[in-house]
Design a protein that fits this description.
This protein is α/β, with parallel strands linked by helices. The protein has two domains: 220 residues, no CATH class; 140 residues, CBS-domain, CATH 3.10.580.10. The protein is 57% helix and 13% strand. The chain is built from 13 helices and nine strands. The longest helix has 30 residues.
Length: 373
């Protein structure tokens, strides 16, 4: 998804945060001021923002863990202030998607219930829940979790309720279940935006987030059929440079200066053993120097794809990589690489030749180049 950045990996799932979280981190402190609180409470507002980010992350990880137990493997999650968008290895069975979708709201409602129990135990009565700064913070976080859980039960993508709606439609054999659920989500977003214009800015912000998520879900569904039957071997780059573990970082620098890719596969005795990304190269040049071996800077955990696999799955993995390269292997031997640029060239040539379904695939190449994944 555009305007998102990878911040790490949790439970084997790549986690990306959307830029909307930057607005959220600024919004809650300013909203605290607008409600008449002092400047000294800005720190409390920022702490609440961070707590909400963690609550949303808990929501998404709960869904990913539930999905994994059901055999739904999640490769990447893009976390939005309302929840997130998951990239899966394969489309789940409808009944499994329903269970996984319910796990996220359940986690937030459970956390909210725990906070409510703590407040009642420490304050003695519901009327005393707002007494003291600790209770105010816990009360705000309680409501944030309950709102997050309830909002995600709305029946439109990207909310979990939209996933449930899609699963129910898919179980009935509806061919355009995702498109319909995304359209419902866009309708909800417009209603929230109207509420924002009417004087509830928080709902307007929520509407913008929902619209972005619903649009991304709809675009992904439109593009998936166009690449589902294209093998990776047709879009991969066959003319590329590789590095050996014993090569110096200076060798990689010279390749970059010569105009080659900025991310390089690392091969030892014909076998792929790592990937040197531009980010790793730059950091290692500062920390280790130009003569340090590539083996000290390369990433040893990396994704790869078989040449015979379909491009649809490869693109999901490519968007989840830390660099912009996905090695292609055949019988564990490196035979090529897939990059956003190689996909873009492939689809543009297909469009120029008038190949069937070229238009949606061209939009895919544009989208990949825009994200820089």
């Amino acid at each position: 998804m555009q305007w998102s950045w990878k911040i790490g990996t949790a439970n084997g799932v790549a986690v990306r945060f959307h830029a909307m979280f930057l607005l959220l981190l600024a919004w809650l402190p300013l909203a605290s001021l607008a409600r008449g609180r002092s400047v000294a409470t800005l720190g409390d507002g920022l702490a609440l923002s961070i707590a909400v980010v963690l609550a949303v992350s808990l929501h998404e990880l709960a869904r990913a863990i539930a999905g994994r137990r059901l055999g739904i493997l999640t490769r990447e999650i893009t976390v939005l202030p309302t929840g997130g968008i998951a990239k899966l290895e394969r489309a789940p069975e409808p009944r499994h998607e329903v269970v996984a979708a319910l796990a996220g709201p359940a986690a937030n409602i459970a956390l909210g219930g725990t906070l409510l129990g703590w407040l009642l135990a420490t304050r003695g009565s519901p009327g005393a829940l707002s007494t003291g700064p600790a209770s105010t913070f816990a009360g705000d976080l309680l409501w944030a979790n309950l709102v997050l859980g309830a909002t995600n039960l709305l029946p439109g993508l990207p909310m979990d309720g939209g996933r449930i709606l899609r699963a129910l439609l898919a179980a009935r054999g509806e061919a355009h279940a995702t498109r319909f659920a995304a359209s419902v989500g866009q309708g909800i977003a417009l209603a929230l935006a109207m509420a924002g214009i009417a004087g509830v800015p928080e709902l307007g912000f929520l509407g913008l987030v929902v619209w972005l998520g619903a649009t991304d879900e709809a675009a992904a569904q439109e593009l998936a059929p166009a690449v589902s039957a294209i093998p990776v071997s047709r879009a991969m780059v066959r003319d590329f440079r590789v590095l050996a573990p014993d090569d110096s970082l200076d060798c990689a620098v010279e390749y970059v200066r010569a105009g080659f890719r900025q991310d390089f596969p690392v091969v030892d005795d014909g076998k792929l053993v790592g990937v040197l990304t531009l980010t790793s190269l730059l950091c290692s040049l500062v920390e280790l120097g130009r003569q340090a071996p590539v083996s000290d800077a390369m990433e040893r955990k990396f994704g790869s794809v078989e040449a015979s696999e379909m491009l649809e799955g490869a693109l999901t993995r490519l968007q989840g990589t830390s660099g912009g390269i996905l090695p292609v292997v055949r019988n564990r031997r490196l035979v090529g690489v897939v990059t956003p640029e190689s996909v873009g060239r492939f689809v543009m040539l297909g469009a120029a030749r008038g190949e069937e379904d070229a238009a949606p695939v061209t939009r895919l190449g544009t989208r990949l180049r825009a994200t820089g994944s």
